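Dear colleague,

Thank you for sharing your sequence with our group. We've completed the structure prediction you requested, and as agreed, I am returning the results in plain text so they can be pasted directly into your records. Please verify that the sequence below matches your submission; if there's any discrepancy, let me know and we will rerun it promptly.
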Amino acid sequence: MNFFTSEKHYNTLSNYYKQKYGKKMVKISLNMNFTCPNKDGKKGYGGCTYCSRLGSGDFAGNRFDPIEKQFNSVKEIIDKKWPDAYYIPYFQANTNTYAPLPILKELFEKAIRLDPLVKEISIGTRCDCLEDDKIEFLANLNKKCHVQIELGLQTSNEKTGELLNRCHTNLEFIEAVKKLKENNIEVVVHIMNGLPGETKEDMLNTIHFLNKLHIDGIKIHELCIIKGTKMAHDYLANPWHLPTLLEYRDIVIEQLQILDPNVIVHRLCADAPIEDLIEPKWTIKKMVVMNEIDKQMRKLNVFQGDHFND
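Please find the predicted structure tokens below.
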């Protein structure tokens, strides 16, 4: 089933939610001050080289505030803009299943009770932090409130993964997705275009890799060079070519044409704090990026899944 329109030639998240719930769905980003196994020494140190000081949760709540305060402070703003919306508590920063199971149980059970209009819960994590007992708990939680797991892959190129200090393998990723899907848990995957040394073929291969796993959703981002990161240090010392806006547009369109037409596209462009962004500057104008993708797909009359054959 697809949710294409004359304007959007791919499965947009907003159209998907409109069909599913009949209302606007809004994510409320939360930061529970977790860490990651490639930060604390369990598997590595320093974290992924592109990751910001806030664990890529730059737009999430204050990590020192309790979950209720974080949620309600954003909800007040949302209610003024969309007074008739449903909510999704979104555990965004760092690795949100990297804690003892009793802590996770208390946290996520509390999250689904934050408001009667909470219809889903979204949890950002790593494939190597989903032990069997945690997946069993998430499967049970999924019976009370829809659970969405977001996994950061970024690339299927193992050499690039090592360069990023990702500290997990493709095999670990495959196994985690398989177990989540076996338990009927929605899987959304993050990938990144413009990583150092990657060719267009690498970026397209990442889509082929994901097609075989039957994921439910995808977030496609451009690489953002953020101040204070290891990636920024490397880039400033020895810059590599980052895709221009039009190059990025064309790569994304090719990726969408390869992508399984049933996958929901959650986003096609990253957000980064303007004050911390080194490159690419074109990412500041997110709507321009989206419009370029949409206009070109309409001009070429191409759609998500046109070249899907996995």
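Summary note from our side: Residues 222 and 248 are 8 Å apart (CA to CA).

Kind regards,
the structure core
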